[in-house]
């Protein structure tokens, strides 16, 4: 699909009228899509498992942060490439701090600035709040070449401060490569076929898994024995294992090492369904 071009104010108004940058949940439409922006790195279009729509990310780092947001129990909505459509406000901020306002390439048209993520986050008291996050590699924030980037980030910071929305920069220092690798694997098992979603089956699985910790078995050996005990195929035991980690009923250190079926059963804590409420409260 061909990317969109912005050459006039009418172009911006037309895209607003067509719903870009509007909506929430599955109905949200990012202001920018992968095909609209030449990316310096790899871009990604990903079907969400938390929000049922295609998400658009312009770098590996944006994808990494997205995986963390999907895994978090606190994040209930994810809106990427979110537009700061009050262009007059962002221009006024630029004038106030004495920096040049960005324009669309090859035009004099003021740019609609975007924030990489606008999240809806559930608070411990049950309320919801908006959180804005900008995703940058650490190397882009230091040195002489970072001056222009930091100027635009300051416009963004002041805009969200005026909206009383928490804003901060996220870099690759937030997460380890192993965490992102593991989350990329686990999210494939976020949804299971209905027969594998039985709470009694999960309880039996967890009980046998707990007992397996006493033996020097690999993860695959443990899962084969569980499959035999439950009279299910090995592949279904494997799928449940990964699903129960994703759904936090099995707690594992995902940051230190990649999950490998041939490796020893990882140090884990089983959280039975009745304990899930208190565990989620602890996460919050």
UniProtKB/TrEMBL annotation:
Stretches assigned to coiled coil: none
Leader sequence segment: none
Superkingdom of origin: Bacteria
Gene3D superfamilies, alphabetized: 3.40.1350.10
The TnsA endonuclease N-terminal domain, residue ranges: 72-172
GO MF terms, alphabetically ordered: nucleic acid binding
TM helices/strands, residue ranges: none
Pfam families reported for this sequence: Tn7_TnsA-like_N
UniProt-recorded name of the protein: Transposase
Taxonomic source organism: Pseudomonas bharatica CSV86
């Amino acid at each position: 699909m061909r990317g969109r071009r912005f050459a006039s104010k009418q172009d911006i108004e037309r895209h607003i009228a067509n719903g870009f940058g509007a909506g929430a949940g599955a109905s949200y439409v990012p202001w920018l899509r992968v095909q609209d922006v030449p990316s310096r790195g790899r871009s990604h279009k990903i079907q969400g498992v938390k929000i049922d729509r295609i998400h658009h990310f312009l770098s590996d780092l944006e994808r990494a942060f997205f995986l963390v947001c999907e895994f978090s129990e606190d994040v209930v909505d994810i809106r990427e490439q979110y537009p700061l459509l009050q262009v007059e406000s962002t221009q006024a901020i630029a004038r106030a701090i004495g920096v040049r306002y960005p324009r669309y390439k090859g035009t004099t048209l003021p740019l609609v600035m975007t924030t990489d993520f606008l999240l809806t986050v559930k608070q411990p008291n049950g309320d919801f709040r908006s959180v804005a996050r900008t995703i940058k590699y650490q190397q882009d924030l230091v040195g002489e070449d970072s001056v222009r980037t930091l100027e635009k980030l300051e416009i963004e910071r002041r805009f969200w401060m005026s909206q009383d929305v928490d804003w901060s920069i996220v870099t690759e220092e937030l997460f380890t490569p192993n965490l992102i690798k593991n989350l990329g694997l686990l999210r494939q098992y976020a949804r299971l076929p209905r027969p594998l979603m039985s709470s009694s089956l999960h309880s039996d699985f967890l009980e046998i898994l707990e007992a397996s910790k006493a033996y020097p078995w690999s993860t695959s050996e443990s899962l084969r024995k569980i499959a035999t005990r439950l009279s299910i195929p090995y592949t279904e035991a494997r799928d449940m294992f990964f699903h129960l980690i994703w759904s936090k009923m099995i707690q594992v250190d995902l940051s230190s090492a990649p999950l490998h079926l041939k490796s020893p059963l990882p140090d884990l804590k089983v959280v039975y369904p009745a304990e899930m409420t208190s565990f989620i409260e602890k996460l919050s």
